[in-house]
């Protein structure tokens, strides 16, 4: 099966051609970061307009790079939620139009299911069940992947997502958007033990996360330094903040893996690109004789290849969508199709 996949849920316009599940023939990503960063974050209206301008060219390029004609495509797949409604609609409308014109099956994909499925691209040995820490710009979930397309969320954030915390702290120290990669880089020059920021473990046994208290503690620290006219060491701040996030993510994931008797752990979403998280999780997995998987950087952040992979497992299960497929901005993971 050859799948043409489209992703427009946030600020990257992406199209990919995916063959037989996990063979990525092309994965074209047109990022709008430069447009949004002057506003310090994604502006939904600008995102939708830019998707409209880019989508046809991105799809054409994906087909060209894969050396495929439209006739070679068997399935059209598209992210239909969660995400920005106006952004999602551009992909959904394009996919529906193509599926109709070509008379090919249409499959709507959950964006987070895509992030999780990105792990299958480079880890052909990884099969459910496994435990996945999903940490992205809008989500922080601990998920038991029971089977392809079958998920049990055992923990989630009660306030900010992990990526959101990175982005907000980055803005506060003037590093700009998107904050994750910038904090990650700066933290390498800092001392992670320099500042004692809070680590939110919540009630005993809870797999939930909370990052807003940490974010406030960072903002308070910055304000206090300003009031006392003390110079802030941004590298130490970045390293200490990152350590507070990463320590909790690692300890809760390992605890859950033990409790659920899982030997395989996967990371997914943009924050899975974080070097400190990868390193600490790797170490913890080694100590506990667990195996860690994560996608390479390009498959961690938003891309259409991961959507094509998720669509493949839906396809073999017989999932199909009609031309009434709509964008669902708050689509829940594991929601029945
Ligand atoms: P969602 O997937 O929840 O809908 P999204 O699609 O906007 O949200 P992703 O593209 O998956 O999010 O990830 C983007 C997020 O990942 C941003 O918050 C960004 O700061 C963060 N991020 C990217 N690289 C890194 C990194 N190296 N370290 C930490 N965070 C990172
Ligand atoms: Mg993005
Ligand atoms: Fe995403």
Please characterize this protein's 3D structure.
- The structure is a single chain.
- With 337 residues, this protein is α/β, with parallel strands linked by helices.
- The chain contains twelve helices and ten strands.
- The strands form two sheets. It has a five-stranded mixed β-sheet, sandwiched between helices. A five-stranded mixed β-sheet has the order 8-7-6-9-10, with helices on both faces.
- Helix 2 (44-66) runs parallel beside helix 3 (85-102), helix 4 packs across helix 12 and helix 6 packs across helix 7 (179-187).
- The chain is globular, with a radius of gyration of 20 Å.
- The mean pLDDT is 97.
- It binds adenosine-5'-triphosphate, magnesium ion (MG) and fe (iii) ion.
- Residues 9-10, 83, 111, 115, 136-139, 163, 166-167, 178-181, 184, 269-271, 273-274, 301-302 line the site of adenosine-5'-triphosphate.
- The site of magnesium ion (MG) has 4 residues, from loops.
């Amino acid at each position: 099966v050859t799948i043409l996949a489209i992703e427009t849920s946030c600020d990257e316009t992406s199209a990919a051609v995916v063959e037989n599940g996990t063979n990525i023939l092309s994965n074209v990503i047109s990022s709008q970061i430069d447009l949004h960063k002057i506003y310090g974050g994604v502006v939904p209206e600008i995102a939708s307009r830019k998707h409209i301008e880019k989508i046809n060219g991105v799809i054409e390029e994906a087909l060209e790079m894969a050396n495929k004609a439209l006739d070679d495509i068997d399935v059209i797949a598209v992210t239909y939620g969660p995400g920005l409604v106006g952004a999602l609609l551009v992909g959904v409308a394009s996919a529906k139009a193509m599926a109709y014109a070509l008379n090919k099956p249409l499959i709507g994909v959950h964006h987070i299911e895509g992030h999780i499925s990105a792990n299958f691209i480079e880890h052909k040995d990884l099969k459910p069940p496994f435990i996945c820490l999903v940490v992205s710009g809008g989500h922080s979930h601990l998920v038991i992947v029971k089977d392809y397309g079958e998920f049990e969320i055992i923990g989630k954030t009660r306030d900010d997502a992990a990526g959101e915390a990175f982005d907000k702290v980055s803005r506060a120290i003037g590093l700009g958007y998107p904050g994750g990669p910038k904090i990650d880089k700066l933290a390498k020059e800092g001392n992670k033990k320099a500042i004692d920021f809070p680590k939110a473990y919540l009630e005993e046994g809870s797999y939930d996360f909370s990052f807003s208290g940490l974010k406030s503690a960072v903002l308070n620290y910055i304000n206090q330094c300003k009031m006392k006219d003390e110079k802030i060491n941004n590298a130490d701040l970045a390293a200490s903040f990152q350590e507070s996030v990463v320590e909790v993510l690692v300890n809760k994931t390992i605890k859950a893996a033990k409790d659920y008797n899982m030997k395989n752990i996967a990371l997914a979403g943009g924050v899975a690109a974080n070097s400190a998280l990868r390193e600490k999780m790797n170490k913890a997995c080694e100590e506990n004789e667990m195996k860690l998987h994560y996608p390479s950087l390009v498959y961690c952040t938003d891309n259409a290849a991961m959507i094509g992979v998720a669509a493949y497992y839906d396809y073999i299960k017989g999932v199909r969508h009609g031309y009434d497929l709509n964008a669902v901005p708050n689509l829940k993971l594991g929601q029945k199709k």
